[in-house]
Amino acid sequence: MKTEVLHALQQFSPIPLNENMLERPVHAHMGDLALPCFPFAKNLRKSPVSIADEIAKSIKHPLIHKAEAVNGYVNIFLNRSQITSSLLQTIQEQSRSYGSSNIGKNGVVTIDMSSPNIAKPFSMGHLRSTVIGNSISLLLEKNGYKTVKINYIGDWGTQFGKLLTAYQQCGNELEVRQAPIQTLLKLYIQFHEKAEQDDSLNDQGRAAFKALEDGNPEALALWDWFKSESLKEFQRIYDLLGVKFDSYNGEAYYNDKMEPIVDMLNEKGLLKESDGALVVELGDDMPPCLIKKSDGATLYATRDLTAAIDRKKNYDFVKSIYVVGNEQSLHFTQFKKVLEKMDYEWSKDIQHVPFGLILKDGKKMSTRKGKIVLLEEVLKDAISLAQSTIEAKNPNLENKMEIAETIGVGAIIFSDLKQHRKHDIEFDLETMLQTEGETGPYVQYTFARANSVLRKSGETSSYTVNKVNDFEWEIVKSLEQFPQIIQHSAKELDPSIIAKYAVDLAQAFNSFYGNIHVLTDSKNKPYRIALIRSTTIILKEALRLLGMKAPEEM
Ligand code: ARG
Fold first, then answer.
1. According to the model, what pLDDT value does residue 373 have?
2. What are the structural domains of the chain?
3. Strands (E), 107-174
């Protein structure tokens, strides 16, 4: 609409205009759009006030109801019924695809996301990566990109030698089967305690990892078992969150693919020896990137380099993003720099998408010795809280369990996404589950409420838009902005823009709902039903883009 209005205005403006010049006034009495004329005064050698006067006087256009010149601004009031009627038609015709674009032109974006470490609990950080990565993927798809979601499992490294040793010495198969991650974590912690007394254990651990690297069948079989037990546990979380991946190639996958990369670094003269280790020096403002330890073992960075090169070969991405916590920023700057030094022109397409911590009472929620926050339990707590709300408010609801899951999980996802990802967020189940305020349940509840009006309205026929009141106009303006919101949030890789938008639209709908009797005013009913139907389409789509479900009843 901004673009159309701009075209319209252009005919009456003495200077070329662009979209950034048009503002959206905060107060409705100042119009729907405003053109400040101050920047033109110098060129035209006229006062902003008289420029505004001239433009306002001459404007005549079907989209524009009236234009007022006020203190150097042209305040534009749009033709509400015309805009509303064409917008509602568009939304109902395009339905779910309203707001889609082909900006991505089918280019591939790989998204490295979630990536938990086996035999360790799925942490709050991994939750953020999963939820943010998933929403970014949905946003990019909506804008015409192809995405590849890669779960780069942390399944390799010297720690697994230690775990194998610990298991061989005091592990119990049944215990692992019953509670894999808890048991393996306990073994790992015990190993560390014992190794503090007895250093020879560390040697045994190293030897066990060497055996694993060399493909010793017994070591491999155990490692494989730990991995599949861990993945089974992670899968339950992914099922609850409704997240799927296109690849599970983790660190171990690159075990036998690193040598050629190390050779290449060597041939390009980039490897330097430093205390027996091999590093790539990155200049004065960055520590060198470690490629091989003195005992010949490869590192996290070696595997990431190899994986990046492999992904470029496999997927020919236009962009490769890594949704990983702030604390790994240096790692990503370093390995991107190494790729640049290797003359990979595409290294510029590598992007770390960092995020902050989840805090509980201001402190990091993390894995402490012995006492761990199990994410699956957190999710289940959220679901049972949602369940008790349903029992209290709507005990006759069908599919209570399914809806409790939709609300509980949705609440967690929404509270994660509603703030810019770089911020730390405070984790409070009670707050995020409230049906008032900026919460997932609030948006879902609004969606359900709108649907209930639609259910009660019965069949509605064709409609004409006569007069659009202020409540309705707020909804229309919001619906109209959806395509720009989608493009903006995809460009910024920022789901919080969508989350805030969903709250705004829900608020506009709720003031309308609280003030207008839709079902009793038969003259306006058909048009209003179309407005409500359009609102449900967009609310559902906004929630979908966040990775949430929209319950028709709750
Ligand atoms: N497994 C790592 C961790 O838990 C995250 C991996 C992130 N992805 C990557 N390509 N380095 O810290």
1. 66
2. 2-78 (3.30.1360.70), 108-254+294-364 (3.40.50.620), 375-545 (1.10.730.10)
3. 108-112, 146-150
